[in-house]
Amino acid sequence: MKKQHYVMTMIIAFLCMIMNSCTDESLAPERTSSIGNDALRDTRDVSVQPLATANVRGTFAGGPLYKSGYAANITELRNSGLTTVIIWTIHIDASGNLNLNAEFPICSSGTYTGNSTYPNFPASVALLKTAPTSIDRIEICVLGYNATGSFASIKSLIASQGTGTTSILYRNFNALKQAIPQITAVNFDDEATYDNASSKAFALMLGDLGYQVTMCPYTNSSYWNTLVSQINTTRPGLVDRIYLQCYAGGASNNPCSWNVGGVPIYPGLWGGTTHMSASQVQSKLATWNSCLSGGWIWLYDDIIGSMASYNTAIVNGVGGGTVPGAAANPSPANNATGVSTTATLSWTAGSNATSHDVYFGTTSSPALIGNQTGASYTPGTLAANTVYYWRINEKNTSGTTTGPLWTFTTGAVASGTDITNLSGTVSAQYTDSPAGEDIAKLIDNSTGTKYLTFHSSGWVQFRPATGAAVVKYTITSANDSPERDPKNWTLQGSNNGTSWTTLNTQTNQTFASRFLTKTYTFSNTTSYTYYRLNVSAVGSGTIMQMAEWELWKN
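Above: the chain sequence. Below: its structure as tokens.
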């Protein structure tokens, strides 16, 4: 953006081309166009509803949205906390063709042509706004960096064709609208032509097509103020954001001293290792926070992998509060296997989170279940041997932090009958359990509860109303503190509660994750009226706990 940046980028692009390693988009200039007379009139009366401007956090992004690796970049942006992505950038040639970064033709003769070059692009743009995501607005920029650039072409085309439905500008931007309806605004980055009449006519035409219009100035404040005032006088609310460049050629700009038709102004800073770190962005924005409600970063292409930290810098820098931290420590653990089909999901809430959006399902884009204040969720009985995905988006009044995608796989459901679901009595050697963690929780079919005793050894017992020949049993680890898991034990049977027969012995057992159900089988044909799990050691410490204990007969 600015001529200084253009020259620098062209040099870098040339060197990258030689090295065959360039990942940024080309910024080659448009072809020269002849300049005609200004188009002056607009007689349409179309109401445009301005979009919300509070808490705007944006970035400009180019080639990474469609080139190799785009899928990971789209995912990062959706998870970043940003609210806005501005696609960089359209070049308009003398014939009215639209070309993204002078390397990606997208519209010609009133038809969207982008699929022949990057067929993934429309779907990628749509995905940016597909839940779970923080992005709620996508714009596309039109760049005019010199006297023969896009805005010179616009001026000439409007002079010769106007902006009616048969004009090439109308037809091509309509084709873009139909192909990628998620783009809701067109951003003007005119840095050379500064023609009020044609820019106004172009803006009103875009409004007819259902677009909002935004501006991205770095100099010539009086021009922008006049242009925006005239556009919004004719079509109130059409221009609803000003993205002020406060870097490179605009480094001396102070957003608090600019006035562009009374429209909210959002300053942009240049992020990246050779420019400003996230902490430097935060500090700079803090010097202006008395007049700000958002900001943006130039250029995503320079900070791939670090977007979330820059989003946080914007929020903290403008004084809009602190966005919540990400949810962490999932239980079941990420990639856990053998998870109980009655597992309860839990996590450590992100810092400053006041509520949680829970996403859960059997696809890698799990559905939104709902918003809640607690840091656990019980999905009900799950299918056996099934992969599940879940995500927690942390929320507060300052924004939403999209959490990582977690997954786990349930175990097989034991065959036969779990006799703890039949009538019977459960008891324990010790009755020192805290409230809500008593022995009854050991067989309540909920991994979200647990039995706990302040002893490192001890027995638990189930007495069925009718004797049964048990041939397998399960133990499910509880929600926390792996050192409390049983380590060594014996399973015993009895028909009088006094004389016991050992049926199964286990030593040095570990549970790789929380809510993990492990199954133990053995040979037995004798029916017993008492079954006792006699734990002789836990992982370490002086506390023992289990979430569930099941006893299965054939």
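The chain has three domains: 54-317, 328-410, 417-553.
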